[in-house]
Amino acid sequence: MKRYLQPCYLALAILGMSSLPSLAENDHYCRAPASTKDHAAPMNYPDQFAWHLFLEVNQKAKKEYATLNGKKVELNNAVWETWIDDSDNFPQHPTPANPPVWPTKADGHNLAYTSFSHQTYSNDKTSSEPDCNPDDLKNGGTCEVVYRNKATFEYIKNNNLWYQEGIADYVKTGKEIVFPIDSIEVKGNWKLIKENEKKDYHWNYTTKGQLIGLVAMHISSKVIPNWLWATFEHVDNPGRCDLLGCFDCYGVTNPVTQPNAKTFGSVYPEEPLSSALLKQYDKSGFNGTWLKEWKNYRLKGSMINFTDSYGNASLLGNSVTESGFVATSSCMGCHSRAAVTSAGQKAFPFFGELPSTAAIGNIPAEYGLQFLTANGAPNPADFYHRAGNLNNNNPYGTLQFLQTDFVWAIPMRAKSINQTTP
Ligand code: HEC
Questions:
Q1: What are the pLDDT digits (tens) for 261-289?
Q2: pLDDT tens profile 162-188
Q3: Rounded Cα–Cα distance for residues 30 and 41 (Å)
Q4: Within a 13 Å sphere around the CA of 34, how many CA atoms are in the beta-carbon half?
Q5: Distance 321 CA to ligand 1 centre (A)
Q6: What angle do CA 351, 119, 250 make, to 5 degrees?
Q7: Using CA positions, which residue lies closest to atom 39 of ligand 1?
Q8: Domain limits of the chain?
């Protein structure tokens, strides 16, 4: 998605220069229908493709029961919830002879990371604590979980990218990390809900048997070389379109919701779903309560490039998953920094490299600091040592950090086989 251009034109007008009329977002973003057959759909119609992915991964999975915390429950899995999650894919104590295996039975969500929501951001004291503490949920917070499909999992497993020493060996081969074209990853954020709210959410259970409702969902697909990135929100999320706006050329009848049209943190009106999307829901077999659940979600935007053609950073962030750094959030910009050292360890932190700023714009002070995060095109100098190496065989310099093809879990999650800590 592109940034919205009006402020630049305002600045030109102030300088007394002649200015172009301001461009509406959809003039350069929502494209007219293609008259050719092979029209590179994910590039030209990324929002439509995002919905295609949404309908594919949210197919109802087979009925499964689990005994969680001594209580037998019927799970409510979509297909992606039956894939492998980060905790199974990246064992805490990896043994190379005993690689992770594809799960055959679902058992509730093992929520891994605390994330925030507008309601709780200011009060949350656990921001430095990665694990999801059940109390975070009890206090109205949200927690998250990552799943990846079999193609993505097998690439990680077969190339030994699930533990640090395996990654280090891979770096020695001099090959790039390039996931197969059918790779898909999903990150979901959840909050506790009550039994009578099941009808309004895609719901499920944690491994501890807590009833949870889905508030945010990221999908990335390797259908294009730098992945296609999309993020969906529950329609009632407070501040859903704050700071960056909401853009969807396919799924709703009004493609553009301007940012900050409302008081920070308020609930945005429910955009009516387009007839094209409703038809696709029907064609994809969604009906009854399953259809009702999923119709509560909206695409906030999709992303296929680091920048627009002027070089302005493309930005996209979810009000829950990226809470606290939505203003500068770029899925691609931040994920391009998923990289490893020759020892197979994390090359960059994902926070803290850039200063945080006092609450900016119209964000009320009680929401605290906003983190600034990497966006725009990656800087090769962050990955290569250049001095003295600009010879013909090595025009970019010497590679210091190998990108992990945008997959943050590899540097973040892979453990050493020799770790001494419990
Ligand atoms: C400031 C950095 C940052 C931004 C911005 C960001 N992410 Fe991530 N993302 C991460 C980190 C770190 C992880 C791994 C930790 C985790 O599982 O939460 C991750 C994990 C993921 C995963 C699971 C696969 C993986 O890479 O391990 C997906 C899918 C994902 N993000 C999608 C998105 C989308 C879509 C956006 C934009 C709307 C986005 N991310 C924005 C840092 C970021």
A1: 778 888 999 999 999 999 999 999 999 99
A2: 999 999 999 999 999 999 999 999 999
A3: 12
A4: 11
A5: 8
A6: 80
A7: 331
A8: 11-31+40-413
